[in-house]
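About this split. The held-out portion is used to measure sequence recovery: a designer receives only the C-alpha cells and must propose an amino acid at every position. Recovery is the fraction of positions where the proposal matches the reference. Here is one held-out target exactly as it appears in the evaluation file.
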C-alpha cells in the first residue's frame, strides 16, 4: 500500500468531499518552485502552496534560522513571559508596517489573526460602555474558517450550515470598476447608525473570490468614512502581505491606513504556522485599565513561538533583498505580457494582474459553481500536466513563489493556455 492509499484510509482533508475524490498525490520532496510525489512525478507549485512559500520549498536560509533557534530555545509560553525573537520580530515589523501600527498580538493562522482583530474591535467598544456589536464586510469576502472569520466571509457554501450561530455582519458591494459609488453609499449608510464596530476587507484583492481586484483610491475613501464615524478598519493581509501585490503590504498603496492588520501565510516563508494581528495604539489603550476584566482574554498555546519568530525574521530578510525584489518585478512583467496575450482570446472574458498575482476568467454559458465541473476539469488537467493550480470556478489564477524561474513560469502559462483551449 502506497502513501496515497494509506492517506485515504486515515486522513480528512480540507475543502474535500471524499466520496467523490480519488487518491491524492503524496508529496515527498520540495525544492525551489518544484515538488515531487512518491512516484517521482515533478510538479511546479504555481500557487506557492496556498500562497505561503514565496521563497520556495526547503529554503536553506529559513531552515538554518529554524535549526539555530531549535537548538537554543524551541518554545516558551508567552503568557507571563517573553523572549528575544518576539521582541526582534516586533521591532522588525514596526520598521516595515504602516507607521500607525504599534502593538502586535501573536497567534497561529490567518483565521485566528482575523478572530483577534474582530474581538479587539468588539471588546474595545464594550470596554467603553458602548453597544457596537456588528461588523461590515464586502460581499464574496473570505476571511477564514473560525466563527468570527467565517461570519465576516461572504462565500455562502462555506458558511450556510452555521447561519444563526454567528456575528451579525452587514455586507457591501465590492468597489470594482463601476460599483465604487454604490459601495461607498452602502458603507456611509451603515456607519451612520453607530451600530458597527469595524469594517474588515481584503485590501485591493479578494483572493478566494477569484482574485477580484479594485483600486486603492476607493478603499481610501471607504476608510475615511469609517474614520469619520469611529468605525475601526481591519486590513486582512493574510494573502496580500509580504510582497504579493508588488509592495510589502497592499496597505502601502493607501493614504489612509487601517487601524488593524492581519498577517499570516508568507509570514514565516511557509515553514511554521504563525499569525500576527497588528493594532493602532488607540485600540490597545482601550484595554489598558486597572480593571483586569478589560484585558483581551485571548491566547494560543504556541503564541509567539520562538522558532516561528526566527523563521519570520529570516523570511522578511529574504523579502528585503534586491534579488527578491527583482524577482517580484520580473514575475509582474511576465504576468503583464501573458495577460496581454490572452485578453483577446475568444474563450477569455477578462485578465487581471497585480504584483505577482495573475487571474484569467474563462467565458461560460452559465454561472460556474466554485467546485463545479469546469473547475474540476481544469484542476485535473493541471495536475496531470505537472502544474499545481487551484481554479476558482471558471477563474484560473497564478500566484507563484518569487524564486520561480522564467522558464518554469513560461511552462505554467503554456499549460494554462492549453487548458483554455480544452474547455
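Reference sequence for scoring:
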Amino acid at each position: 500500500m502506497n502513501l496515497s492509499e494509506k492517506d485515504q484510509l486515515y486522513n480528512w482533508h480540507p475543502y474535500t468531499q471524499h466520496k467523490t475524490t480519488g487518491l491524492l498525490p503524496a508529496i515527498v520532496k520540495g525544492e525551489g518552485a518544484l515538488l515531487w510525489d512518491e512516484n517521482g512525478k515533478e510538479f511546479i507549485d504555481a500557487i506557492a502552496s496556498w500562497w505561503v512559500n514565496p521563497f520556495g520549498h526547503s529554503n536553506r536560509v529559513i531552515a538554518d534560522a529554524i535549526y539555530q533557534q531549535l537548538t537554543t530555545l524551541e518554545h516558551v509560553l508567552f503568557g507571563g513571559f517573553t523572549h528575544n525573537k518576539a521582541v526582534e520580530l516586533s521591532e522588525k515589523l514596526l520598521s516595515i508596517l504602516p507607521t500607525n501600527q504599534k502593538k502586535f498580538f501573536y497567534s497561529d493562522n490567518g483565521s485566528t489573526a482575523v478572530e483577534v482583530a474582530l474581538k479587539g474591535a468588539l471588546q474595545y467598544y464594550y470596554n467603553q460602555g458602548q453597544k457596537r456589536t456588528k461588523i461590515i464586510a464586502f460581499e464574496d469576502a473570505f476571511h477564514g474558517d473560525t466563527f468570527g472569520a467565517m461570519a465576516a466571509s461572504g462565500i455562502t457554501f462555506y458558511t450556510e450550515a452555521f447561519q444563526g450561530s454567528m456575528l451579525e455582519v452587514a455586507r457591501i458591494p465590492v468597489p470594482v470598476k463601476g460599483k465604487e459609488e454604490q459601495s461607498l453609499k452602502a458603507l456611509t449608510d451603515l456607519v451612520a447608525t453607530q451600530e458597527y464596530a469595524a469594517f474588515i476587507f481584503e485590501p485591493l484583492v479578494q483572493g478566494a473570490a477569484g482574485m477580484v481586484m479594485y483600486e486603492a483610491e476607493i478603499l481610501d475613501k471607504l476608510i475615511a468614512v469609517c474614520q469619520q464615524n469611529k468605525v475601526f478598519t481591519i486590513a486582512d493581509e493574510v494573502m496580500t502581505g509580504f510582497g504579493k501585490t508588488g509592495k510589502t503590504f497592499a496597505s502601502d498603496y493607501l493614504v489612509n491606513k487601517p487601524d488593524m492588520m492581519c498577517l499570516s501565510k508568507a509570514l514565516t516563508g511557509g515553514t511554521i504556522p504563525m499569525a500576527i494581528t497588528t493594532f493602532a495604539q488607540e485600540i490597545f489603550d482601550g484595554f489598558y485599565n486597572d480593571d483586569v476584566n478589560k484585558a483581551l482574554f485571548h491566547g494560543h498555546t504556541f503564541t509567539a513561538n520562538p522558532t516561528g519568530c526566527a523563521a519570520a525574521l529570516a523570511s522578511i530578510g529574504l523579502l528585503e533583498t534586491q534579488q527578491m525584489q527583482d524577482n517580484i518585478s520580473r514575475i509582474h512583467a511576465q504576468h503583464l505580457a501573458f495577460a496581454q496575450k490572452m485578453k483577446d482570446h475568444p474563450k477569455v472574458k477578462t485578465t487581471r494582474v497585480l504584483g505577482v498575482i495573475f487571474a484569467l476568467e474563462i467565458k461560460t454559458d452559465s454561472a460556474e459553481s466554485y467546485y463545479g465541473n469546469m473547475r474540476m476539469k481544469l484542476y485535473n488537467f493541471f495536475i496531470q500536466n505537472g502544474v499545481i493550480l487551484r481554479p476558482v470556478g471558471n477563474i484560473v489564477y497564478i500566484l507563484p513563489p518569487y524564486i520561480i524561474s522564467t522558464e518554469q513560469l513560461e511552462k505554467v502559462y503554456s499549460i494554462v493556455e492549453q487548458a483554455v483551449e480544452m474547455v
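Annotator remark: The longest helix spans residues 322-342.
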